[in-house]
Write a structure and sequence with these properties.
The complex is a heterodimer of chains A (454) and B (471). Chain A is an alpha/beta fold and 454 residues long. Chain A has helices at 18-26, 29-34, 46-51, 58-70, 77-85, 92-95, 102-115, 121-134, 138-153, 156-162, 171-179, 188-192, 212-217, 219-231, 247-251, 255-270, 282-288, 291-294, 302-311, 315-322, 346-351, 356-364, 386-389, 391-408, 418-431, 442-449, and strands at residues 195-196, 204-209, 234-237, 276-279, 312-314, 338-343, 368-370, 412-415, 438-441. Chain B contains 15 helices and 16 strands. Classes of the chains: A alpha/beta (454), B alpha+beta (471). The complex binds flavin-adenine dinucleotide and iron/sulfur cluster (2 copies). Chain A: Component of a complex that catalyzes the oxidation of glycolate to glyoxylate.
Chain lengths: 454, 471
């Protein structure tokens, strides 16, 4: 076995395999050593749950990373496939007694893989367009939103569906298309402006992180978030110059792009005098709270990144911890209680540690019965763009998820992240024949039931 | 080495997908929970039935291929590291709860079922399966049986061995044996059930087990006692038992553990305490009240500096946090955590903890001790860094001296984690030369070609005994 260089160094190996060389350079060897192989993370892992095979578990993946670095294993195609099969849901982290930073290890691994990837021409163009053009620039996203809206509204969508044009696309893409919400080019700032004052007694000042997908596909949810915050006593800034959080970049190995976006956001929010930076998408929030880690090596941004990360909070956590109580409307007499259930956003739960607050809020809404779904904390299989790139695993996970969902007999399936929301809509469309369940963002549900003082 | 034709035969038994020799499979079955131990197998197989296991064993025997049976690979003794290569046989696909017999209060299960799932299932049926190793969320029943795992409830309810009534097992020859049954009494021949419990995958492959279930206790009450004088804590433990009270849980944390736990969980533990006892009693409500009151009085008499009785379940959970987070807190200190399980008669726990502390100072290593005070099963836990070979050497020396001390106090080298390869060099210290010979005879009777988990239990060489100067 490899001998370490110094007391805490990495193994001194000249790998002939280029990917192994990059892995050795990028992977945090201390974290690899911290894994004591106790296996406590296995039951938490969705891909282990589905396959029952150690290579598809966190312990297995870490062992393979270490083996590649130690020269025990050549990181071949199988290695890459196994790393790509990981959802990045990070359910393994809270389960780990040794506090192994799995999220960082898988990101470093994906970064190394991306550096050596030979993507086919179409994938290359798609990655390039998405990561370098669309997400970083709001203009393009809005344009995309506009185009999508046009496509959806003009009847083209119907035509495309009817003519079976979608059948030309791979099945899973076609499935996704059918549940996409109406996109809009009018985001939260266009609707509310860049400042929205607190109602009632003011308890703090927040800045809203609007998210790029959120603001195009779920702009209404962003508006509702601002209104909830205001009703709970927060002044809300919505700085218009903010950019994409960079999460999709980081999870796909484009870490430098993620860093550039982080810096841009820090510059924007740093100008404001704020107590909180509020996210309503677990996927974005989880990267935002880790900006300090992302820019740890950057002398210029380290302090500001820490300032930023310390302020990041999920909307539900902030409402529960600091907000004035919201008032929820009683239902009209004679109406039955509605049953609601909840699918955790993995990143909200595992990284932002925000699993408690959404449940507290749901239980407070008048005339609703909250039903905890079995395995609500298990990833739904959406995980960013996972359901597009790993359709089979995502499909299996979703099928199991929907069994539990259907067992709750709830009429509302609430969640706290756009990816999960879309996945739940897909699940209902595919696995709930009667379609008695509606998937909704928690914020929209709360806003719908809140009594406005206006 | 596994030849092309063997590979074909094995795939014919379990299906192409379930016999693997690819690098990914080999790497991820080269380790278990034991620090600093890794060896590559030649293949990995996932059987689904007893018949398949039998067929596999026949091929392995004919070709003298080592078979290492594996549950979840959470053991801490090198039990599933394939030190001599061969095939790792993963039992996870055999994970069915076959039957729960409500008349005989037994459950019949396959070995790959996860202990935690099983326990929960049994609880939902209104019954109780007491063995609760801290690893139960991930460990398999097969692994528990093969290691004779214990847990927090060991003092009152016993360990795995007390709940195994019968086994189906496959011998290396491929022959299938059935031992015991749904029977409370059975003296037909040698007790092979008990022999297979704790046999660490060296005698046979367990493919089915009949387990004993009991009615659950009605209530539970939790209390904590803190001592500046560790002997006060130790006397409390002895006195509780002397007064014929057997608590469900009786756990101890020593001062180094208290410090680490408080630093991690920030629960305001007093750092000047030498030991904390966490005590739980369960059973009929009146009995629980009476016992807890009596224990409280004993703690008082033994000069406990702080005493707390939980009035609600939430308060109880809070009191239990200290014990629950002990391992996690220690595991986060340094990259490598070595959790041992030296065990002494309960009257000797104070002595053992103090000796361990002295030994740690002598070798300049970090060792904290917590564990099951009631049954004398302690977990001296060293935190170190596998990459620092000089320090690791000192840790090993310290543990050798700790084992020696345990035996000198009438104890044993392992209370529940098993011998495996890690403690094999010390086994003779405990059982003596004649003991080893008998055990080797048993091994040969079951496994004449030594293909089951070779390199475990028996070491090539026994470690030289240390000379300890008591003073
Ligand atoms: C953090 C941590 C805490 C722990 N706490 C405890 C504790 O409180 N109490 C305790 O007793 N142990 C504890 N352990 C040790 C370990 O979890 C137990 O020994 C457990 O029973 C192992 O189960 P497993 O399924 O992982 O078995 P494995 O590790 O896979 O195997 C263990 C042994 O059993 C054999 N084996 C497995 N299945 C079979 C079978 N079907 N037939 C024949 N042989 C088989 C293997 O060959 C091996 O020798 C702990 C371990 C860790 C990492
Ligand atoms: S729980 Fe943590 S230490 Fe244990 S195997 Fe998983 S990653 Fe490694
Ligand atoms: S991130 Fe999720 S899928 Fe990936 S190893 Fe961890 S638990 Fe498994």
């Amino acid at each position: 076995m490899a001998s370490p260089t110094g007391k805490f160094g990495k193994p001194a190996i000249e790998h002939s395999n280029p990917l192994a060389r990059t892995l050795l350079e990028k992977l945090d060897y201390d974290q690899l050593t911290n894994c004591m192989r106790c296996g406590f993370c296995l039951p938490a892992c969705p891909t282990f749950h589905e396959t029952g095979m150690e290579p598809a578990s966190p312990r297995g993946r870490i062992a393979m990373m270490k083996a590649a670095v130690d020269g025990l294993m050549v990181p071949d195609q199988q290695f890459k496939d196994q790393m790509n099969l990981c959802l990045g849901c990070r359910a393994c982290e809270p389960a780990c007694p040794a506090d192994v930073k799995y999220g960082q290890l898988i990101e470093q691994t994906k970064e190394a893989i991306a550096e050596h990837a030979h993507y086919t021409a179409p994938v290359k163009i798609l990655r390039n367009t998405l990561f370098k053009k669309v997400f970083p620039k709001r203009g393009s996203l809005k344009l995309l939103g506009g185009t999508l809206a046009l496509y959806q509204k003009s009847g083209l969508k119907k035509m495309a569906r009817a003519s079976g044009m979608m059948r030309l696309f791979p099945k899973h893409l076609a499935e996704m298309e059918s549940i996409m919400p109406p996109a809009s080019s009018k985001g939260v700032v266009e609707r509310l402006g860049t400042f929205y004052p607190a109602q009632g007694e003011k308890v703090g000042t927040a800045a809203m992180f609007r998210g790029c997908i959120m603001d195009v596909m779920f702009a209404g949810t962003n508006v509702n978030t601002v209104e909830l915050l205001s009703a709970a006593g927060f002044d809300v800034h919505i700085p218009d110059a903010q950019v994409c959080c960079g999460a999709l970049h980081a999870h796909s190995g484009e870490i430098n792009d993620a860093r550039a976006l982080a810096k841009a956001n820090i510059e924007v929010f740093k100008k404001l005098d704020i107590d909180y930076i509020v996210s309503n998408a677990g996927g974005c929030g989880a990267l935002l709270v880790e900006y300090d880690h992302l820019l740890m090596q950057d002398d210029h941004y380290r302090e500001d990144a820490k300032w930023f990360a310390e302020r990041v909070i999920d909307v539900s956590t902030l409402l529960v911890a600091k907000g004035n109580p919201l008032r929820f409307a009683e239902q009209a007499a004679g109406q039955e209680e509605v049953k609601v259930t909840y699918q955790d956003s993995c990143h909200l739960r595992n990284v932002m540690k925000g699993a408690h607050a959404p449940r507290v809020l749901m239980k407070k809404v008048a005339n609703t019965e909250y039903i905890e779904m079995v395995d609500a904390d298990r990833c739904c299989g959406s995980a960013g763009i996972y359901n597009v790139v790993q359709p089979e695993m995502a499909g299996d996970i979703l099928a199991h998820k929907m069994e539990h969902a259907n067992n709750t007999q709830a009429s509302y399936m609430l969640t706290s992240n756009p990816g999960c929301l879309l996945q739940m809509k897909l699940g209902i469309e595919k696995h709930q024949p009667q379609q008695t369940m509606r998937a909704m963002h928690l914020v929209d549900f709360l806003r719908e039931r809140m009594i406005s003082s206006k | 080495m596994i030849t092309e034709s063997m590979s074909k035969q094995l795939k014919a038994i379990v299906g192409d997908k379930y016999f693997r020799t690819d690098p990914e499979a080999l790497i991820t079955h080269s380790y278990d929970g034991t620090p600093m131990l890794q060896a590559l197998p030649d293949g990995v197989i996932y059987p689904e039935t007893t018949a398949q296991v039998s067929e596999i064993m026949k091929i392995a025997s004919a070709n003298r291929i080592p078979i290492v049976t594996r549950g979840s690979g959470s053991n801490l003794c090198g039990g599933t590291t394939p030190l001599q290569g061969g095939i790792v046989m993963v039992m996870h696909r055999m994970n069915q709860i076959i039957e729960v017999d409500m008349e005989n209060l037994t459950a019949t299960v396959q070995p790959g079922v996860i202990t935690g799932h099983f326990s929960k299932h049994i609880e939902e049926l209104g019954l109780f399966y007491p063995p609760d190793p801290s690893s139960m969320k991930i460990s398999t029943i097969g692994g528990n049986i093969a290691e004779c795992s214990g847990g927090l409830r060991g003092l009152k309810y016993g360990t795995t061995k007390d709940y195994v009534l019968g086994l189906t097992a496959v011998l290396p020859s491929g022959a299938v044996i059935h031992t015991g049954g749904k029977l409370a009494k059975d003296v037909a021949g040698y007790d092979l059930t008990k022999l297979l419990v704790g046999s660490e995958g060296t005698l046979a492959v367990i493919t089915e087990a009949i387990l004993k279930l009991i009615p659950p206790p009605k209530t539970k009450k939790t209390m904590v006692a803190m001592y500046k004088d560790i002997y006060g804590a130790a006397r409390t433990v002895s006195k509780i038992i002397q007064q014929h009270i057997i608590p469900a849980t009786l756990e101890i944390l020593d001062n180094p553990t208290i410090r680490v736990v408080d630093d991690f969980a920030k629960i305001g533990l007093p750092l000047d305490m030498a030991a904390i006892l966490i005590i739980e009693q369960d059973g009929e409500p009146e009995m629980v009240e009476r016992d807890i009151e009596a224990i409280y009085t004993i703690c008082r008499e033994e000069q406990a500096d702080r005493l707390e009785i939980a009035q609600t379940r939430e308060e109880a959970e809070k009191l239990l946090t200290a014990r629950r987070s002990a391992f996690t807190a220690l595991a986060r200190l340094r990259p490598t955590t070595i959790l041992e399980d030296a065990t002494v008669p309960r009257s000797k726990i104070a002595e053992m903890i103090l000796r361990t502390n002295t030994i740690a100072i002598k070798y300049n290593v970090n060792i904290a001790t917590f564990g099951h005070a009631g049954d004398g099963n302690l977990h001296p836990t060293a935190t170190t860094d596998a990459r620092d070979s000089e320090e690791v050497h000192r840790v090993e020396e310290a543990f050798a001296e700790i084992f020696e001390a345990a035996i000198a106090l009438g104890g044993t080298i392992t209370g529940e984690h098993g011998v495996g390869s890690v403690k094999a060099p010390y086994l003779e210290w405990k059982v003596g030369e004649a003991g080893i010979e008998v055990m080797k005879g048993i091994k040969a009777a079951f496994d004449p070609h030594h293909i089951l988990n070779p390199g475990k239990m028996f070491a090539k060489e026994t470690r030289k005994r240390l000379v300890i100067h008591h003073g």
